[in-house]
Amino acid sequence: MPIPLHLAFLFLANIAALLSGFMLGMSVHETIRPSLTDILQVKEVVFIVFGMVPAALALLVTGFVFRNLIVGRCPKCGGRAIYHASRKKKAIFGGSNKVPITYHCEECGYVHRTRIYPASPMNHH
Ligand SMILES: [Zn+2]
Predict the structure, then answer these.
(1) Can you tell me the distance from the alpha carbon of 109 to that of 63, in angstroms, rounded to the nearest whole number?
(2) pLDDT, position 94
(3) Which residues, given as ranges, of the chain have pLDDT below 50?
(4) How far apart, in whole angstroms, are the C-alpha atoms of residue 29 and residue 47?
(5) Can you tell me the distance from the alpha carbon of 87 to that of 43, in angstroms, rounded to the nearest whole number?
(6) Are 54 and 63 in contact (CB under 8 A)?
(7) pTM for this entry
(8) Cβ-contact 62, 17 below 8 angstroms
(9) How much distance in Å is there from the Cα of 121 to the middle of ligand 1?
(10) How far away, in angstroms, is 88 Cα from ligand 1 center?
């Protein structure tokens, strides 16, 4: 799929994964609650074990799917363009440059730079 579409889907899928992971975990807890030990009845523990953990797992799975199974389309050759998260790169004169989300084409090696830095999505510098 075209890269902007891939990014949009990835964004939505991440939100959906967080929410559904959380809700699924909570409903699992609801179901198996009677057979749990006391520590797994404590609200904060339940929140982490049955809320945050499944949400994080769902996020990992989503990331895997959008890196390996669903990929972008290279604007140059139409090949498989693989998503790379934004990251920091060491600059030559010290300090570091922020690299936005990029897509690397497997066929022709073209690197498509998006303008999206997760920390500041609307930052165009
Ligand atoms: Zn290409």
Answers:
(1) 22
(2) 78
(3) 120-125
(4) 10
(5) 35
(6) no
(7) 0.80
(8) yes
(9) 25
(10) 24
